Task: inverse folding
């Protein structure tokens, strides 16, 4: 390790908009992880980075320094390529659930380390934990064994991967320094590079329900992460995808598992299927397998992906045939007049689901497996007065009041002349059809 530095000098350098050298970066990350740099000093440095930015070389070094604080997994002995996906987080984003088994059904291994939800965005582990018996924590040996036998694993990231990031992320969360592109990019990529995947596809969400509210910001984040992947030898591609309205027709843990199973049965909402297939195609291409879109749809329709799903759930103690939990209480929000749903805001629906108990306010909180929202009338649906738009689900009815407020505010219903409104189109598997992929960023 490099010689000791004066932390105040490092903060001052960045505060004044200058470039940190490699030695300063290596030292400050290591010293912070070991408790030598104080929390208040790291918060000042994080704020200076948020305000002043970092060069590509600084971000690459910062990422490498965070990886160096922990272990690196190695799947080179697996005998087949590995590929993974990371989403920057959205509302109703259950894509990992059908995606990992779909990709694995083509013989490419998927080591997917996932997280829990915080705030209005859900976490993959919370969703899978609504399956009776399913276990998120696996040792590295168990992960390797499951990748060999099943080809796909979705589990909790162990505490050994990039411990600097765990500490820094918690600090950023309480110092208003999350929204920095260099810090987000290095945080995500340090974990993904340490995980040891050969190829990576990033799903960078854009819109009200995402970190990145504009396409320009999302493009910059995507470019930064794609470059970091390239610098570290991980083949990385980013899709920029719409998060202005929820993905699919369900938001909430068990509800989203149910919808994912529909996709694995060859059904499910169009936007979820389209995004799953597009990401799978890129993940496989990154691992050297060119598979066309029709073949991917066929693997969903003929049960190949479902077979892997069942084995993947069972390998982690889950009962893939057991009924999923359902909420004790429901409340339906109906159209006050006839018209067209011209807005269904992702953030508003996410906040409503969170208030129903689907998400947590603090890391220590529990989530309700069955809480959440079913969407009957997605964006663009014509409805008549009294038709259902959303159903709210919770086990604790005292949550309805605040959830209802957020849900109502999320709905924009534009009146249309009565004769132009066809009868309701709220079929259970309504085709949620929209341009989900906004752009692609390649190395
Ligand atoms: N997700 C992460 O892992 N890190 C960030 O900084 C933001 C989102």
Result:
């Amino acid at each position: 390790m490099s010689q000791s530095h004066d932390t105040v000098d490092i903060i001052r350098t960045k505060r004044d908009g200058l470039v940190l050298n490699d030695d300063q970066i290596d030292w400050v990350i290591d010293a912070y992880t070991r408790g030598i740099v104080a929390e208040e000093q790291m918060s000042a440095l994080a704020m200076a980075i948020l305000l002043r930015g970092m060069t590509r070389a600084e971000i690459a070094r910062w990422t490498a320094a965070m990886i160096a604080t922990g272990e690196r997994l190695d799947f080179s002995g697996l005998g087949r390529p590995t590929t993974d996906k990371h989403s920057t987080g959205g509302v109703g984003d259950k894509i990992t659930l059908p995606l990992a088994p779909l990709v694995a059904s083509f013989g490419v291994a998927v080591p997917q380390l996932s997280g829990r939800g915080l705030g209005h965005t859900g976490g993959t582990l919370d969703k899978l934990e609504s399956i009776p018996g399913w276990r998120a924590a696996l040792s590295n040996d168990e992960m390797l064994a499951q990748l060999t036998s099943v080809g796909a694993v979705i589990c909790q990231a162990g505490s050994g991967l990039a411990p600097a990031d765990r500490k820094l992320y918690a600090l950023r969360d309480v110092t208003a320094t999350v929204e920095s592109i260099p810090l987000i990019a290095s945080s995500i990529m340090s974990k993904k590079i340490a995980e040891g995947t050969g190829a990576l596809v990033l799903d960078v969400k854009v819109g009200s329900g995402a970190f990145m509210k504009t396409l320009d910001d999302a493009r910059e984040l995507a470019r930064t992460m794609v470059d970091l992947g390239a610098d570290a030898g991980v083949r990385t591609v980013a899709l920029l995808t719409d998060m202005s309205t929820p993905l699919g027709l369900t938001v909430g843990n068990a509800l989203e598992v149910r919808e994912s199973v529909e996709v694995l049965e060859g059904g499910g909402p169009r936007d979820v299927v389209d995004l799953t297939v597009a990401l799978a195609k890129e993940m496989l291409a990154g691992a050297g397998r060119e598979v066309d879109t029709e073949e991917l749809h066929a693997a969903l329709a003929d049960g190949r992906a479902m077979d892997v799903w069942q084995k993947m759930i069972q390998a982690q103690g889950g009962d893939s045939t057991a009924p999923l939990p359902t909420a004790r209480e429901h409340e339906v929000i109906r159209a006050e007049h006839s018209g067209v749903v011209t807005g269904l805001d992702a953030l508003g629906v996410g906040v409503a689901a969170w208030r129903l108990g689907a998400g947590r306010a603090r890391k220590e909180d529990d989530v309700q497996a069955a809480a959440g929202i079913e969407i009957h009338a997605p964006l663009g649906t014509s409805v008549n007065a009294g038709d259902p738009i959303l159903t709210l689900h919770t086990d604790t009815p005292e949550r309805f009041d605040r959830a209802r407020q957020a849900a109502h505010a999320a709905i924009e219903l534009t009146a249309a002349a009565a004769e132009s409104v066809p009868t309701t189109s709220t079929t259970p598997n309504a085709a949620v059809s929209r341009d989900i992929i906004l752009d692609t960023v390649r190395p």
About this structure: Residues 54 and 182 are 6 Å apart (CA to CA). The pocket of uracil is lined by residues 169, 178, 183-184, 187-188 (CB under 6 Å). The first strand starts at residue 83 and ends at 87.
